[in-house]
# Entry
Amino acid sequence: MFPPRLLFPLIPLLLHSHLKAQDGEQLYGLYCAACHAPDGKGATGGAFPPLAGSEWLHGNPKRSVAIVLKGLHGPIEVGGKSYNLEMPPQGDALGDDQIVAILNFVHKAWGNKGQEVKRDLVRVVRAEFTTRTTPWTAPELLKLFPFEKKPTALANLTSRVYKGQWNQTPDFTKIQSENVEEEHSGILDTALAAMKEDFGIVWEGDFMAPADGEYSFILDADDGAKLILDGKTVAEVKGLGPIDGSRVAKGKATLKAGANPIRIEYFQGKGQQGISLGWKTASTKKWQWVSASSQKNTGGNPQIPLMPQDGKTVIYRNFIKGSTARGIGFGFPGEVNMVYSADNLAPELIWAGDFMDAGLHWTNRGQGFQTPMSDEVITLTAQRSLAPTARFKGYSLDPKGNPTFHVKIDGQLLSDAFALGADGTLVRTLKLSGGTSVLEIPLGDNPSVTTEKSVSLAPDKPVTVTYKLR
Ligand code: HEC
# Structure
């Protein structure tokens, strides 16, 4: 991606290796800043990965040492952005003391909370990988030094596994469990049973509510599951079926800050298995997941959130729940999303927050409808908004991925463009060319997002409409 000569301005800097160990910040300026920028945000406007806030510098400090010693190449994600570049090894140019000084600076700079690096550690890591001659890849590093998982809201979690054949969640209190285990990860994962079919799992523990208030829960399972808080069933996925959102159960509970007893019952019949459970409060728009995001090994659907990358709008062309068969999804940066229906020739759904879970289609080759990752989706229109003679003529994307839809109506051409506006709004620009007719364009029937129900569009007089999502 970058011509190698971009990397060479660094080499004269290696002459400064007489600098003392304690000059961590200065050494950083000499050996790292050309690529990672003096402010740690990544040189050339973020074309290089940042060290400020990087998850790669947190947790096991051996990882940072290993990167500096041997370099890094290939695809890597840092702070949600993807890179595929080359970091040259620095192990020969830098002594142990210098690496210690640099990393102890980097680990605490710009709000980083990396661990202290002891001098011995660099020596140990050098010795451990002395025979290695190639730079690391990101997956290799993660295998050796995995990220530390953040604790979830589930504490003191235990799991009990049951054997049996059911069509509904059974009364587990009447069945003898096979075993009990502590689940320190705080994550629900059906793989813990290490069984393919005809088993059940009951998890018990505390849901650690951050504050008093009302909590929403979302539960899905292959096959059935039940969520019980303080002894009351809050959500239930009944019977046999896949984990694809078609049987998803939602519920609310008013909880006090601190530990609230939680119990999750699950059973698996035949075929694929898996459970997903998320929670949120009125003030958080995103679901917090307490289930394994990936059920790959057992064939369930991993949750793969599709997100805008590098400030570009992301597109989703598969079936979307709530839209017609020819609905096309757009996730604009800034957590604004829209589905345009080529059947209705109008924006059909809009919502704030996460875009789409692409897991279903990526694993099942496009069976079924995928659900937007929000339960506050606003339907703007559910019917065709233009004359029956109007024809969809496709769409074009600008360099930022923003779409313009083209519609032909009796000799006139309508162009209908969408982009992210200020303060998380969606801005729609309508333009009509040819002919003399003035068109009445419905804007959707939702006063919370648009004040006008329609606009009059005259040829060559573009109109801009703003949809407010927050
Ligand atoms: C010649 C440019 C260059 C220099 C000099 C350089 N790096 Fe890097 N660094 C990179 C690139 C490029 C990547 C990403 C590699 C990839 O895409 O696989 C990277 C990745 C990293 C990462 C992991 C990803 C991240 O952003 O957290 C760390 C940590 C890191 N560098 C630390 C350092 C430190 C500390 C120094 C100074 C001792 C340094 N680098 C010097 C170019 C450089």
